[in-house]
Amino acid sequence: MLLVATGAIGVVHLPEWAMFLRVRYGWSVRVCLTHSAERLVSREALAAVTQAPVEGPAWETRRGVVPHQELAEWADLVIVAPATTNFLAKCAAGITDSLALTSVVCAQAPVLLAPSVPEAALARPAVQRNLRTLAEDGYHVVPMGRGVSAHRGAVAASGMPGLPAVLRVAARVLPAADDARAADPPLSGQRRDDARAADPPLSGQRPPRETPPVTPSAGPGPRRTGASRG
Ligand SMILES: Cc1cc2nc3c(=O)[nH]c(=O)nc-3n(C[C@H](O)[C@H](O)[C@H](O)COP(=O)(O)O)c2cc1C
């Protein structure tokens, strides 16, 4: 699954989320950062816990692939966490001025958005409109949670949802995605593993995807996570 991170303070939780998803659920996790996210979270920590190179914010073409297309096709689930007001607005408008946005807008898999919106911004009609548009357009907007504002320490109801809330939405969305894929055979380049067919119905657990190395010589080659499931 592809974890897209944008520049809200909740991004500091991402290494822990990624670690949990990889080790506990056995998912292959790749991360893509925006410029703002990169300033708030450790790229090295994310690479270590995902055992995969972190994508973005630069468009990396050394691997000889078009990065947003490769990511968009690879992902069987996309979670944007946290999703800033800025990212939500651009996504709602179909703007693709970063690798993260282009990957999300091009994604063929279900996209979950875990917003983190300042309380004052949430009151704006434009922000409400964007959230409605995203839901109408098929994005899965996870209800925001109560969070402590990094600014004043006050509790607000517009914080990034917690991982359990995100996974509840994922559990609802993924079986429907699998049904749609079964009815519509994958295009070339979109491989279904035998393991996927054998995988038990969702309890939040998905078959791992292979993760490509940064360069042909930089890693051990495509591999599965060694983590157990469940
Ligand atoms: C410490 C810090 C916390 C921030 N938290 C949020 C937030 O919770 N929600 C939000 O919409 N923007 C937040 N921002 C502002 C965004 O980082 C800014 O709008 C940025 O342009 C978003 O870029 P991105 O969407 O490409 O990541 C925060 C900025 C900083 C420096």
From TrEMBL:
Residues 2-140 form the Flavoprotein domain. Residues 180-230 are annotated as: Disordered. Pfam families: Flavoprotein. This is Flavoprotein.
